[in-house]
Predict the 3D structure of the following.
Amino acid sequence: MGAKDVAGAGPDSGSGSGSGEAGSGGVSGASASSETLGYEQARDELIDVVRQLEAGGTTLEESLALWERGEALAKVCGRWLEGARARLDAALEAER
């Protein structure tokens, strides 16, 4: 079952209000809103951001934009996981 199949486990179900996004400027996937990304999409883009940062060769401005995008993506992943955890807890509680 994918994250999209877990109703209520999306980024809107967890606490927190939105995430800041880096500007566009060469950051891969920066045009996609963090709020509309599924867990797997956000995770995969986050992996790409980390690889780019680890590879180096970017300007300070590009590195900061990548870092900010990574922070936003990490928040999206966290909200998906919090929502999934809450649904699992509710399902386990309902079985008792």
Observations:
- The helical segments are 39-55, 60-95.
- The two ends are 23 Å apart (CA to CA).
- Residues 16 and 79 are 8 Å apart (CA to CA).
- Residues 60-95 form the longest helix (36 residues).
